[in-house]
């Protein structure tokens, strides 16, 4: 997997202390992106799932966040990483510039399999004109914080605190 960085003890990428894995590569190129260095598809460092999991296990109290870049560009490997994190009883958040509906349509089987391990998906591209620093865990008003398990069960997008 192409990984830009792994940040431990993050408090801005979901509730509590989190280990945030920033994946390299993004095709959205959002104006005002807080992480434009993540856009390069071949950026960062190549890491195996085992290497990433060693970092995750170093901080057993932290939950996990997948961010980027765009994690969904590596969805095949991301499914396996999420599965291994979930086996450690980690709460998993994932940020994506794609919409839930786009992912369900384009990568239906893979996205559904990934969603079985992800607790919360923050979806939608960052829109500079809708930037709001008062928002918790997202950058712009258009982004949604989705309860993955409830959404899968009800076969519709279910927002957190809905």
UniProtKB/TrEMBL annotation:
An example Gene Ontology molecular-function term: [formate-C-acetyltransferase]-activating enzyme activity
Pfam families linked to this entry: Fer4_12 (PF13353)
Segment forming the signal sequence: none
Cofactor(s) needed for function: [4Fe-4S] cluster
Superkingdom of source: Bacteria
TM stretches of this protein: none
Entry's EC annotation: 1.97.1.-
Domain Radical SAM core: 12-162
Reactions catalysed according to its record: glycyl-[protein] + reduced [flavodoxin] + S-adenosyl-L-methionine = glycin-2-yl radical-[protein] + semiquinone [flavodoxin] + 5'-deoxyadenosine + L-methionine + H(+)
Keyword terms: 4Fe-4S, Iron, Iron-sulfur, Metal-binding, Oxidoreductase, S-adenosyl-L-methionine
Function description: Activation of anaerobic ribonucleoside-triphosphate reductase under anaerobic conditions by generation of an organic free radical, using S-adenosylmethionine and reduced flavodoxin as cosubstrates to produce 5'-deoxy-adenosine.
Family: Belongs to the organic radical-activating enzymes family.
UniProt-recorded name of the protein: Anaerobic ribonucleoside-triphosphate reductase-activating protein
């Amino acid at each position: 997997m192409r990984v830009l960085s792994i940040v431990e003890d993050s408090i801005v990428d979901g509730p509590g202390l989190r280990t945030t894995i920033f994946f390299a590569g993004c095709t959205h190129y959002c104006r005002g992106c807080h992480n434009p260095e993540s856009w390069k598809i071949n950026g960062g460092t190549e890491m195996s799932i085992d290497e990433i999991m060693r970092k995750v296990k170093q901080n057993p109290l932290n939950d996990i966040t997948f961010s980027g870049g765009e994690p969904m560009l590596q969805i095949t490997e991301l499914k396996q990483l999420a599965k291994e994190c979930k086996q450690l009883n980690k709460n998993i958040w994932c940020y994506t510039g794609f919409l839930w509906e786009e992912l369900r349509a384009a990568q239906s089987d893979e996205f559904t399999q990934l969603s079985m391990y992800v607790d919360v998906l923050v979806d939608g591209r960052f829109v500079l004109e809708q930037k709001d620093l008062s928002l918790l865990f997202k950058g712009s008003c258009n982004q949604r914080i989705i309860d993955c398990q409830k959404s899968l069960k009800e076969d519709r997008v279910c927002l957190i605190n809905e």
